[in-house]
Design a protein that fits this description.
alpha+beta; two-stranded antiparallel ribbon; extended
């Protein structure tokens, strides 16, 4: 059997067995930032119950940090370095999050360039919880 006939037979069989995709499903770009204000429900008196937002920030300290308050320096020096750590912080969906700033203030470290350079953010995860009663 001729090689060109074999190739033609394979091409014909492929066209029948595999559907042809002629269009890519590229999603549209949404460049408008909107706050993620989620309404979970309302109380009996009509007060809106909104979701609580939090970030789980996985980070690593690459060096020693300077504490915001001198009295906190010994405790800050005990935070492990060169290992994955995480914190959970409240997130305001109406603002832009400064992730490094959140980690530094959570730890009681000064928000200064050397501290920012000693901090590596590995991952940020987002969580949302719908409470059963209205929050203040």
């Amino acid at each position: 059997m001729n090689t060109s006939r074999i190739a033609l037979a394979i091409a014909a069989a492929s066209a029948i067995a595999l559907p042809a995709f002629t269009e890519a499903a590229v999603p549209p770009v949404d460049s408008v930032g909107r706050p993620a204000l989620v309404r979970c429900g309302t109380t009996a008196n009509g007060q809106v119950i909104r979701a609580s937002h939090a970030d789980k920030i996985v980070f690593e300290l690459l060096g020693f940090l300077q504490a915001q308050l001198g009295a906190d320096q010994p405790d800050l020096n005990l935070v492990p370095r060169n290992t994955a750590l995480d914190i959970k912080v409240i997130d305001d969906p109406k603002t832009v999050a400064d992730i490094k700033g959140k980690v530094l203030t959570f730890l009681g470290a000064a928000d200064i360039p050397p501290n920012r350079e000693a901090l590596r953010i590995a991952e940020v995860k987002y969580a949302m919880v719908c409470p059963t009663t209205a929050m203040p």
